[in-house]
Amino acid sequence: MATVFASSPVTAGHLPRALPRTNAAPLAAAVALLAIGAWYLGETVSGKQATLYLVGAALGATLYHSAFGFTSSWRVFIADGRGAGLRAQMLMLAVACALFFPALASGSLFGTPVQGFVSPVGVSVLAGAFLFGIGMQLGGGCASGTLYTVGGGSTRMIVTLAGFVAGSLIGSAHLPWWSALPHIAPISLVTTLGSLPALGLNLAVFAAIAGLTVWVERSRHGKLVRKETAIVAGWPRWLHGPWPLVVGALLLAGLNFATLALAGRPWGVTSAFALWGAKIAGGVGLDVASWPYWQAAGNKAALAAPIGADVTSVMDIGVIVGALATAALAGKFAPVWKLPLKSFVAAIVGGVLLGYGARLAFGCNIGAYFSGIASGSLHGWLWLVAAFAGNVIGTRLRPLFDLPVERIPRETAC
């Protein structure tokens, strides 16, 4: 397993690092935000909402410490055939499907009614995921990656996040037009095939994709390329990081399942960005409440309610705060405020494409890809194919903005 997923053992010439010097002030701020946020949500919304906030924080910590991203993993595979990141994603999806499918088939989990993210399959998903894929490479992150790198102190990703919110708002305005284009009704493999046959089919595809990455990597390099990184040894590694990709994959699957149990639906990210954009736009006088997207019952209620009542918003904020805490523990919280013009432009353009594409595709790398496939939705597989094609184009465009196309995995995967 360690060879297949290219984890990072201590080897000769790679002695363990000394314990990092913790960034005390950011850590104290993160702990205070976690405590105050959980208390506030427990008092004003519910204990379940407070717990979901902490689950979001755990997701942020996992994403940061395992450097579990989608953008860099796909870019490294496209540019140099290294597939450890993709194989970790297949493991994550396999475990998530094994957990999700029986619960979705029964319709309840620990007494809570549950349902997956199952969306239409059509032109809107195809176009949206393709645009999202380009945006991943220009913006420098996916949806989850944008959140955890913002929490980790990346000032460039704050720009991407701003574009993400703007693009999501524009996408919410245009979605009715896109939704009218050719499409077929939502298809759940769990409902159509049954949970066990659907799980078997999905596991076979995950294994095939992982096997393909192994073949490509060995063809390109003669062997599976191991990422040798000096690490903190012993138990401090689990506090200060980095964590192996396999651990990140397992924890993300488990935390998504916890979200399903608590919220009654899987982990999502980008609907909150559209909501934030709509609230900002409404605050400056734009009548977004009259748009068809915001007239839908669920969206209308979310727009009228406080942000703290929205599960996705609460978890997104939790991801940021959790990543802030782990970056401070790792001694890596050191924002750099100087941003080259070309990189700034790419962040804005990429962010807008990310937000717009996510609305068209009924989700992002989390809501459509991770949670969509874990829900047995056929649209999740279409999202994967279209978004990967967009990443190929985006990777080719990066040099135009003086953005690197690295050929080894980075410690911060987005």
Give a description of the structure.
With 414 residues, the chain is mainly α. It has one domain (22-401). It has 19 helices and 4 strands. The protein has helices at residues 2-5, 24-44, 47-65, 71-80, 84-106, 123-139, 143-151, 155-179, 189-193, 195-221, 236-240, 245-263, 271-283, 292-295, 297-304, 311-329, 341-360, 365-374, 378-397, and strands at 108-109, 112-113, 121-122, 183-184. It has a two-stranded antiparallel sheet. Strands 3-4 form a two-stranded antiparallel sheet. β1 (108-109) and β2 (112-113) form a beta hairpin. The protein is globular, with a radius of gyration of 20 Å. The two termini are 23 Å apart.
Number of domains: 1
Global structural class: mainly alpha
How far the N terminus sits from the C terminus, by CA atoms, comes to: 23 Å
Largest sheet features: 2 strands, antiparallel
Sketch the topology as an H/E string, one letter per element. Answer: HHHHHEEEHHHEHHHHHHHHHHH
Shape: globular
**Mean of pLDDT:** 91
